[in-house]
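I'd like us to work through together how a protein chain folds, taking it slowly. To get us started, please write out a protein record for me. Label the sequence line and the structure token line clearly, so we can match residues to local backbone shapes. Once you have written the record down, we can walk along the chain together.
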Amino acid sequence: MTEYKTTTSIFSKDNYIWMLAGAVVIAIGMFLLAGGKSEDPNVFNPKEVYSNTRITVAPILILAGLVIEIFAIFRKPKG
């Protein structure tokens, strides 16, 4: 008869929830970073490309999501 060893997961349900939250924050940041397309390709509109959302808010959200991911990985499971 073969014995099967069961291993416990290194992550708990809370870790996975934090990881999902970090991925969502990163996705929102990437969504805000995208865009800036002009209807006429011969016209450059710096207000669309260099908007406050794309230059400041989106990178901060992406970095915050990465920090959340690191926190989720290194968080010790309860119990």
